[in-house]
Amino acid sequence: MTTENTTAQKAEARITADYRQGQFDRVNKNITEYRPKIKICGADGISTNHMLITADELTAIEKLLTKKIYTFDELPEEIQQKAIEKHADINVDFDWWDHLYEDAKTVLLKIDGFDLDHNRHCTGNFIESANDTAILIFNEHGKDCETYKTAENYQSEISALWAKLPEDPADDGCDDNEYEREKLEEEIDTEFLRSLLEDYSIMLQKDYEYMTSEKAIIETIKANDYDFTEDGEID
User: Fold this and answer.
1) Predicted confidence (pLDDT) per residue in 123-177, tens digit
2) CA 78, 82, 85, 90 torsion: positive or negative?
3) What residue segments make up the domains of the chain, in order of their start?
4) Handedness of CA 201, 204, 206, 212 (dihedral sign)
5) What is the pLDDT of residues 106-135, one digit of tens each?
6) What are the distances in angstroms from CA 155 to CA 3, 160, 162, 187, 201?
7) Integer Cα distance of 229 and 71 in angstroms
8) pTM of structure
9) Closest by CA position to 116, among listed 212, 219, 190, 214
10) Which of 36, 37, 30 is nearest to 16 (CA)?
């Protein structure tokens, strides 16, 4: 075997390994340096270190490396639209709801699950008590937040309940209003929970709708400097 053929075989092994590991920059360098020698190996390809690369595979590699790539702004408008449609889930292909779950936890509300669109809802429960959650909402959420308004409404209903059914110790030391007050307080707590879960389900829906909007998809594409093929696929 000539030195030239040996060199070609070594180049073959390097190119095959780099190509199959996705290291295309190195492949490109190798092809530029060794392509004339690799041609000597013939159309059937050669086996080196138990790796086989054929002339057709090498041509495919070269085609991959020489294909044109474009920024999003360089794509024609119809291809931009195609790219947006192909990558409609680019902002929601992970646990995008985690930040709202964590926000709920800061006010001692645990969200167990949710659904969107026509079946929009949240499920969950208080980690401690309804009153604890209301106090934390007042401390952590701004007055313009729907959760703040929900907590205010809860607080008003609880205050009104205690004004209507105050502690009323009888001669035997029992509170005659206790049973009725606790029953109604439980109902108010349940409604507070339902309203808070509704607030969070609306936030989840709005977040999802924004993240799947064309504006958000384009923002993500540009922020990550994605390159595209001529058919709108991310390179």
Assistant:
1) 999 999 999 999 999 999 999 999 999 999 999 999 999 998 888 766 565 777 8
2) negative
3) 3-66, 98-211
4) negative
5) 999 999 999 998 999 999 999 999 999 999
6) 88, 9, 11, 13, 22
7) 9
8) 0.69
9) 212
10) 30
